[in-house]
Amino acid sequence: GFGVFLVVTGLRVIRHREDEGENSSAVGLGLLGRVIPVSDEYDGHKFLTMRDGVWMATPLLAALVVVEATDVVFAVDSVPAVLAVSNEPYLVFASNAFAILGLRAMYFLLADARQRFHYLSHGLGGILVFVGIKMAASEWYHLDTYVSLGVILLILVAAIILSERRTRLEAAN
């Protein structure tokens, strides 16, 4: 079940096009627009603005809502995984709290790395495919943890080396 989902997600990440996701801000605006009127224009760093005597949300507030909703989804999504390892409530709470605190910092780190390493997203997609296949086949075949780690590291290193090679070739031209 979940292994197949990871394979499909990994394949979608690998075939990602540059123009995908350009309308993703429209989703946040649409969801927020159901609760409060939303302006199409930014007003500096303000989340709310007054237009024609009506308080309206700015696209900046919509972006904040989407980011915070994503934090909550990831936090809730990880609870079953933590509960599979430990039933200690304090440990479950603490691990999820630290995960939420580190999520945004990790995002900016990965966003910067993605700019520098063109093939990093392809490598991450390959890792998702590998983990999905491993999960789907785990009932019939057990792959040693060290082999799994080796495959994941090999995919990451290959993505980084190919990215560096591309960067050098583009700089030479």
Structure description:
The protein has one domain (2-172). The chain contains 6 helices and 2 strands, in the order H-H-E-E-H-H-H-H. The chain has helices spanning 2-14, 24-33, 59-85, 89-116, 120-137, 145-172; strands at 48-51, 54-57. Strands 1-2 form a two-stranded antiparallel sheet. Strand 1 (48-51) and strand 2 form a beta hairpin. Helix 2 (24-33) packs across helix 3, helix 3 (59-85) packs across helix 4 (89-116) and helix 5 packs antiparallel against helix 6 (145-172). The model has no long low-confidence stretch (mean pLDDT 79).
Q: Percentage of helical residues? A: over 70%
Note the main sheet: 2 strands, antiparallel
Coarse shape: extended
Query: In terms of per-residue confidence, which ranges show pLDDT below 50 for 5 or more consecutive residues?
Result: none
Secondary structure: number of strands: 2
* Neighbour order of strands in the largest sheet: 1-2
| H and E order | HHEEHHHH
Secondary structure blueprint with pairings:
Layout: H1 2-14, H2 24-33, E1 48-51, E2 54-57, H3 59-85, H4 89-116, H5 120-137, H6 145-172
Keywords:
173 residues, mainly alpha, two-stranded antiparallel ribbon, 5% strand
